[in-house]
Design brief:
This protein is an all-alpha fold. The protein is built from two helices and no strands. The model has no long low-confidence stretch (mean pLDDT 91).
Length: 70
Protein backbone atom coordinates (compact mmCIF):
# COMPACT_ATOMS: atom_id res chain seq x y z
CA UNK A 1 0.00 0.00 0.00
CA UNK A 2 1.27 3.45 -0.82
CA UNK A 3 2.26 5.91 1.88
CA UNK A 4 -0.38 8.57 1.09
CA UNK A 5 -3.11 5.95 1.18
CA UNK A 6 -1.88 4.72 4.55
CA UNK A 7 -1.88 8.25 5.95
CA UNK A 8 -5.38 8.94 4.60
CA UNK A 9 -6.82 5.70 5.98
CA UNK A 10 -5.20 6.30 9.37
CA UNK A 11 -6.59 9.83 9.52
CA UNK A 12 -10.06 8.57 8.57
CA UNK A 13 -9.92 5.89 11.25
CA UNK A 14 -8.87 8.41 13.90
CA UNK A 15 -11.74 10.73 12.96
CA UNK A 16 -14.29 7.89 12.99
CA UNK A 17 -13.15 6.78 16.45
CA UNK A 18 -13.40 10.37 17.75
CA UNK A 19 -16.89 10.78 16.30
CA UNK A 20 -18.03 7.51 17.88
CA UNK A 21 -16.65 8.60 21.25
CA UNK A 22 -18.48 11.92 20.94
CA UNK A 23 -21.75 10.23 20.01
CA UNK A 24 -21.49 7.87 22.96
CA UNK A 25 -20.72 10.74 25.34
CA UNK A 26 -23.69 12.74 24.08
CA UNK A 27 -26.06 9.80 24.34
CA UNK A 28 -24.88 8.93 27.84
CA UNK A 29 -25.28 12.52 29.01
CA UNK A 30 -28.81 12.66 27.58
CA UNK A 31 -29.64 9.38 29.31
CA UNK A 32 -28.31 10.91 32.51
CA UNK A 33 -30.80 13.77 32.23
CA UNK A 34 -28.67 16.52 30.72
CA UNK A 35 -30.26 19.11 28.44
CA UNK A 36 -29.45 19.10 24.73
CA UNK A 37 -26.99 22.03 24.93
CA UNK A 38 -25.16 20.40 27.84
CA UNK A 39 -25.02 17.07 26.03
CA UNK A 40 -23.67 18.81 22.94
CA UNK A 41 -20.96 20.52 24.95
CA UNK A 42 -19.98 17.22 26.55
CA UNK A 43 -19.95 15.57 23.12
CA UNK A 44 -17.65 18.28 21.79
CA UNK A 45 -15.32 17.86 24.73
CA UNK A 46 -15.23 14.10 24.21
CA UNK A 47 -14.56 14.54 20.50
CA UNK A 48 -11.68 16.90 21.20
CA UNK A 49 -10.19 14.63 23.86
CA UNK A 50 -10.48 11.50 21.71
CA UNK A 51 -9.02 13.24 18.68
CA UNK A 52 -6.11 14.62 20.68
CA UNK A 53 -5.38 11.27 22.29
CA UNK A 54 -5.56 9.37 19.01
CA UNK A 55 -3.32 11.85 17.22
CA UNK A 56 -0.82 11.72 20.06
CA UNK A 57 -0.70 7.93 19.92
CA UNK A 58 -0.40 7.99 16.12
CA UNK A 59 2.48 10.48 16.33
CA UNK A 60 4.25 8.39 18.95
CA UNK A 61 3.89 5.20 16.91
CA UNK A 62 5.07 6.97 13.77
CA UNK A 63 8.09 8.37 15.58
CA UNK A 64 8.93 4.98 17.04
CA UNK A 65 8.62 3.17 13.71
CA UNK A 66 10.31 5.74 11.46
CA UNK A 67 13.81 4.22 11.69
CA UNK A 68 12.46 0.83 10.63
CA UNK A 69 10.45 2.11 7.67
CA UNK A 70 13.31 3.70 5.76
Amino acid sequence: MSEPATVALTAALIIVIAVLAAACAGKLSRLNGATYPTALIQSAAAFTAALTAALTVAAAVTTALTPYLR
